[in-house]
Design brief:
The chain has 355 residues and is α/β, with parallel strands linked by helices. The chain is 50% helix and 11% strand. Helix 2 crosses helix 3, helix 4 packs across helix 5 and helix 12 runs antiparallel to helix 14.
Length: 355
C-alpha cells in the first residue's frame, strides 16, 4: 500500500452550501438523523457520503496517532501497523493514517482494512480499495474473530450511533480483536470503560471541537513495558531528529540570521564555505537544544505533519508565501518559514542579552 496521501476533497472553511450537501440536503447531520433516522440517512446517502468535518478530523486523528506513538503504544518503525477503519465513511480514518505515516520517513506504510455497510461505495470509489460491509451487529456477532488482530481500530463519528442494547457487546468484540481504540466524536459519548473491555490510554485530545479519546484493550495481551519504552524512545529520537533537520534546512537555505563571531565560537574564520556552513549548522543545532527553542521547533514539525494539502496552501497564502508545488514541497516551505521566525526571535533575544 502506498504511503503517499491522496488529495483531500474537503478543505477548511467549507461553505454552508457544501456542508448542506454533505448532510444530504439537511441543515446538519443531527437534523438528518432526527428526520429519517441514522439507518435511513445512510441507506439513502451513504454512496455519496462525505464527512463535513473531514480536514480537522484528519488533523485530530494524526495528533492522536502521534500521542500514542510517543507513549510507545503504537510503533510503525519496526513493522507496518494493521489498522481497522471502522464505519469508515468515505475514508477519513484511512486518509489520516496515510497522512500520519507520510509525515516521518521512519514510519512504514500501514495495512488498512475498511468497513462500512452503508458508505462502502463512497469509500471504494474514492480510495480505490475494497471495503467490508460489516455492521455493528456483525462486529458484535464476532466477525473479527476470523481475522488477524489489529494494532489500531479507528472509530470516527460512529460509536455514539450504536444502539445502547448492543454497545457493550460491540465494544467487547472490538477489544478482543484490536489492541488500541481511537474514538473521534463531536462530544464525549459513548462512555467507555473496563466494563466495555477498554481502559483509557492517554488524556483526551480536543481539536477544533472534535473530541479524541484513546483506549487500550483489556481483552488482548498487555504490551511489554520494555517494548513500549523502546518504542517511545525511538519516537522521541525521530521527533528530535525532525527538529534538528528543520534547523539545518533553515541554515542551508539562508533562513537563519547571520551569526556573529562570538556566537560561532569555535568556528574557524579562515575555513572554506563548507566548513563555515558546517559550523553554522552545528551552532544552530546547539541553539535549538535550548529547551524553549527545541520545544517550539518540535511543535512546528508536529503541527505541519498533520496538515493536508488544502490546509498547507491556506497557511502559506496567509503568510504571503508561494502556494504552488506538491505536498512535500509545501510542507517544507511552511516549515522553513516558521523555523525562520523562531530562530529570528531567538537571535533577537541573544542580541538583547548582549546589549
Amino acid at each position: 500500500m502506498a504511503g503517499l496521501s491522496p488529495a483531500l476533497s474537503v478543505q477548511k472553511g467549507m461553505t454552508l452550501s457544501r456542508a448542506h450537501d454533505a448532510a444530504g440536503g439537511f441543515d446538519s447531520l443531527r437534523e438528518a438523523y432526527e428526520e429519517v433516522g441514522v439507518d435511513g440517512y445512510y441507506a439513502d446517502h451513504g454512496a455519496a457520503y462525505r464527512n463535513p468535518h473531514e480536514p480537522i478530523l484528519i488533523e485530530a486523528l494524526c495528533l492522536a496517532f502521534s500521542k500514542l506513538e510517543e507513549a510507545g503504544l503504537i510503533d510503525a518503525s519496526t513493522r507496518p501497523l494493521r489498522v481497522l477503519d471502522y464505519a469508515c465513511g468515505s475514508g477519513e480514518g484511512h486518509l489520516a493514517i496515510l497522512n500520519w505515516v507520510d509525515g516521518r520517513s521512519e514510519r512504514l506504510a500501514a495495512s488498512v482494512t475498511a468497513a462500512d455497510p452503508y458508505t462502502y461505495m463512497s469509500y471504494e470509489k474514492r480510495m480505490g480499495y475494497p471495503c467490508q460491509r460489516w455492521s455493528f451487529e456483525d462486529i458484535s456477532g464476532g466477525v473479527l474473530e476470523e481475522h488477524t488482530p489489529f494494532d489500531v481500530v479507528v472509530g470516527a463519528f460512529c460509536l455514539h450511533l450504536i444502539d445502547k442494547s448492543f454497545l457493550r457487546t460491540t465494544l467487547m468484540a472490538l477489544a478482543r480483536a484490536c489492541d488500541v481504540l481511537v474514538v473521534a466524536s463531536p462530544h464525549k459519548r459513548p462512555h467507555i470503560d473496563a466494563d466495555h473491555g477498554w481502559e483509557e490510554a492517554t488524556s483526551e485530545l480536543l481539536h477544533h471541537r472534535i473530541h479524541i479519546r484513546c483506549f487500550t484493550s483489556l481483552q488482548r495481551p498487555r504490551p511489554d513495558a520494555a517494548v513500549m519504552a523502546a518504542a517511545a524512545a525511538r519516537a522521541a529520537t525521530a521527533k528530535h531528529r525532525a527538529a534538528e533537520e528543520a534547523v539545518a534546512n533553515a541554515v542551508t537555505h539562508g533562513l537563519y540570521p547571520p551569526l556573529t563571531v562570538t556566537q560561532r565560537g569555535h568556528a574557524d574564520k579562515a575555513g572554506d564555505d563548507e566548513e563555515e556552513q558546517g559550523a553554522a549548522v552545528g551552532t544552530a543545532v546547539a541553539a535549538a537544544e535550548d529547551e524553549e527553542i527545541e520545544a517550539a521547533l518540535a511543535e512546528i514539525t508536529a503541527e505541519i505533519e498533520v496538515l493536508n494539502l488544502g490546509a498547507l496552501r491556506a497557511a502559506l497564502a496567509e503568510g504571503g508565501l508561494d502556494t504552488t508545488g506538491k505536498k512535500a514541497q509545501l510542507a517544507e516551505r511552511l516549515r522553513e518559514a516558521r523555523v525562520k521566525a523562531v530562530l529570528e526571535a531567538a537571535q533577537q533575544g541573544l542580541h538583547g542579552a548582549a546589549s
